[in-house]
Amino acid sequence: MNSILTVQDLHVTFSSRFEEIHAVRGISYHLEEGEWLGIIGESGCGKSTSSKALLGLLADETVIKGKILFQDKQLNACTESEIRQIRSKEIAFIPQDCMTALNPTMKIGLQILEAQKKSSPFTSFSQAEEAARLLLEELGLEFDSLKDAYPHMISGGMRQRTLIAIALIREPKMIIADEPTTALDKKLKKIVLDGLKRRQQENKLSLLLISHDLESMAEYCDRILVMYAGKIVEYGDAKTIFRHPRHPYTKGLVNSLIKIDQDKNKPLNFIKGQPPHLNVPLNRCAFCERCEEAMNVCAILSPPLYQINPLHQSACFKHDPGDRA
Amino acid sequence: MGKCDRFFFFKVNSTLVFSLCVLSALLIFAIAGPYLALHSYDETNLAFKNLSPDSRFWFGTDELGRDLFTRCCVGARISLIVAFAATFIDLVLGVSYGMISGYGSQKMDEWMMSFIDILQSIPYLLIVILLIVLMGPGLITVICALAITGWMNMARIVRGQVLQLKNQEFVIAAEAYGASKSRIIIRHLLPNVRGQIIVVLMAGISTALFTEAFLSFLGLGVQAPVASWGTLANDGLLALRYYPWRIFFPAFLICLTILSLNLIGDGLRDLFDERKKI
Fold first, then answer.
1. Cβ-based contacts of A89 with chain B (< 8 Å)
2. pTM, to two decimals
């Protein structure tokens, strides 16, 4: 397999007049063709920011450093028209907030067909409509009753599925999905993810999935990337990450999952504290204040990613090979 | 929904229909009035001065014995031209300036807004007097004065709305799907500020009517014997005590125009607002 997306040492900095916020502080990963990579982590740790930076969707004043390679093209060095080509044909983006992600003054049908028209301008209108009808049917929606509705007239779940349909109708090579299933119930979530999975098997669709829904991430993703405070803290295949998490932060995340047979009198597990504010460069492990296993070194040095085995990396001094020996 | 529904709504929204009728009546009055009248607008006859309305002089006469009905018709032409010119300038200059400023880069926004600040800090009368020195008093000068000073309010409001909208997910989503900047402005931003634009436009029209009257009153606008509603009302104000109809008719026409335009504005806003049509 060859990788479809390679990110090397990506930094994203928002600068205002008063301070600079280092939202993403040097992350590197790659996505193979037809692979699903899940990004997990708390709110505000740079998941959405790093994925939006891939397509250049952040405000113009944002500083993006590093290399973003899609196939052979460097996305952050493309001209405006080149990146528009890629956005309209190659990489689709499913936005996070389904309540505001549809234009309130446009009919649903038009918003879906507009996406289709842009990616393959030579299909006729009726062909495009047929494709939209099939796609929406697969997602459990009826195109004919939906096409003349405005976004405020349909439910949150329907809107979310519309967004997914808009992404899928152009048959992209890769999808960046920012919490695509948050407004959906279990059954619809399964329908949507199975639909995506089928496209992975048939068309080698690659997916960058951002979510807080760890259960479905564990079930569907091939590899998982755990982010904390703008850095990667653990990176590995999904089974290892969820069954044998090594980084204390990942352990905390996995532990905070609610089990159905949990003792009701015991409080729920969670990670105490807040992630650090990212307005100053951090010369320590960003997690050390909240970490139960913190050592002295954690407060003065920033840990690199240590290779635990060929498929598993973790950014914790406990996994320093010198230390283990 | 659809075309059919829009017509249905049009039927239901009786205020919109009514105010459109009033405005068209005013237009007919402005266009056809002088041909119906028995006297020309500048025909003076001191024997008939300050007459009250009767069958010969439908709106009465002024202090020089000129027929007020004809003068109101001629005034309607001037006032409506001013009103529509102001709308047009607001729409073209104000909306596009605001759009570009709001949707462009932050640097450009700062420059464009500073330019408006500077322009607004120059006393308005100074600009107008300068223009009159250059061009001489008259209708064209009044329209130019409105063009220079009138659009900034619209530009500010459109810019504010665009700044709010451009960070909304649907604009970012449109960008993510490769929509060009011009397409985003036309398809995604413009329909979402439509309501505000209409309201500001209608407020701008009444301001323009009064500004024209004020400039004419100072002798900077249209010159006698041509009259606008504003100058007629000003003339009438001097004789309010003894001949109240001289102010009543032009003032009534101004009120009627502004009221109908405001109602049209409200109606259009509702007509275009998809949320009001469930």
1. 178
2. 0.79
pLDDT digits (tens, 9 = 90+) for B93-106: 999 999 999 998 88
Structure tokens at B115: 């330019």
CA-nearest residue of chain A to B179?
A84
Residue A149 Cα to chain centre, angstroms: 29
| B175: nearest CB among A57, A89, A115 | A57
| Paired strand residues for A312 | A236, A309
- CB-based burial, A49-58: b 16+ in 10 Å, e otherwise: bbbbbbbbbb
**pLDDT higher than 60, residue A99:** yes
Q: Do A93 and B177 touch (CB under 8 A)?
A: yes
Question: Least CA distance to A97: which residue of chain B?
Answer: B169
Whether residues A57 and B172 touch (CB distance < 8 A) is answered with: yes
- Considering A4-8, B12-16, B80-84, the range whose residues carry the highest mean pLDDT is A4-8
CA atoms of B27 and A78, how far apart (whole Å): 55
The verdict on whether omega for the bond into residue B225 sits within 30 degrees of 0, i.e. cis, is yes
The fraction of chain A above a pLDDT of 70, given in percent, is 98
| Burial status of residue B212 (CB atoms within 10 A of its CB: 0-12, 13-18, 19 or more) | buried
Spatial strand order in the sheet of A3-15 = A20-32, A3-15, A63-70, A73-74
Q: Which residues pair with A91 in a beta bridge?
A: A174
- Mean pLDDT over all residues of chain B? 82
User: Which ipTM score applies to this complex?
Assistant: 0.78
B:31-90 residues touching chain A, CB 8 A cutoff: none
Q: What does the alpha-carbon distance between residue A82 and residue B101 come to, in Å, rounded to a whole number?
A: 25
Closest partner residue to B1 among A59, A89, A148, by Cβ? A148
- Residues of chain A neighbouring B274 (CB-CB closer than 8 A): 104-105, 150, 152
pLDDT per position as a tens digit, B130-181 = 888 888 877 888 888 888 888 888 999 999 999 989 888 888 888 888 888 8
Do residues A299 and A284 touch, judged by C-beta distance below 8 A?
yes
Chain A hits for B170, CB-CB cut-off 8 Å, are: 95, 100-104
Q: Would an 8 Å CB–CB cutoff place B271 in contact with chain A?
A: no
Contact call for residues B34 and B76 (beta carbons, < 8 A): no
Strand partners, A207: A36, A175
